[in-house]
Structure prediction request, 393 residues.
Amino acid sequence: MKRTLLTSESVTEGHPDKIADRISDSVLDSILTDDPEAHVACETFLTTGLVLVGGEITTSTYVDVPTIVRRVLGEIGYDKPGLGFHYQDCSVLSAIKEQSTDIASAVDHASEVRVAHSTDPYDVIGAGDQGIMFGYARSDTDVLMPLPIVLAHRLTQRLTEVRKKGTIPFLRPDGKSQVTIEYEGDRPVRADTVLIAAQHDDDIDHNRIQAQILEHVIQPVLGDWLDADTTLLVNSSGRFVIGGPASDAGLTGRKIIVDTYGGFGSHGGGAFSGKDPTKVDRSGSYMARYVAKHLVAAGLATKIAVQVAYAIGRAAPLAVNVDSQGTGTLSDDRLREAVLKVFDFRPGAIIDRFQLKRPIYAQLSAYGHFGRSDIAMPWESLDQIEELKRAAA
Prediction:
């Protein structure tokens, strides 16, 4: 049987791009706490000594952006001297304006209401932009996610955990992981290569870093996936003292593959963080994952990609497609017909189903938006399997 190597990566919450994502989502959460109807598209840029928050926000409430930024930076761990970036000393600039009234009108009064005079409440909210969104699921793992991205996220979560608990006291906030899994056909069989890049204090012996990371991070996470031939790479550059915004600029939405499926399936290009749920980059992607997971969990395929396309100001999607990648028990056309009988892809329906106007987003800003067991994500539920099976029968 054909053997292939498939790889995914993850980054810690202290990575510059993930700091930016968390700031943007924290601003969003703060706004939604008081104004669930707000329209938010918040972007963050940061570099040495500077955080710039911008975007288009229309809301009836007020949030103190500098206070949010400094709180997030302190929670992540940029609260100690010597890191090159400190939550109390950095400059925070805000460049926020209101959302275009043209866009707001199209979102609040979808074409189905403006033109076709529909009275269906889910026809009121139009998509906040055009674009294509993808969902993906496969039977590699119990969470129906590809194994490489699941393990990569667990490694970076573990890096953060042992840093904050003091298990490895010399670690600093920035870090990365990368996992290459060997597959036999569609079945994962072993870890071929595991890479960890962990920011650390100065004057720490490299051998000590390797030993501690292996004992407290790699072995607890990878377990039986490791074998005698697995290549383990810990700080392969030899030194990782300067990290975070002091070494690299960060930007919201620059880790979209890390946020989703780790290179499996496809990605439409839109980021999630900092966007309220009328932005279908976020809500449409959550719905596509929900549908893909149902199809695999229902036994209708072992791997599935779901694509949905939207037009700005229109509630109904332009197209929904299902690709079982040759693993479906029915034709893709039959699967698509079943999906359209059961699932409603209109933004208003998605928002109601998952209750997306709540302040739930900062917790999603690192370690992935899908397949997690540490936080509750309503789009990961499997509550319509029987309906889907009946529709497909």
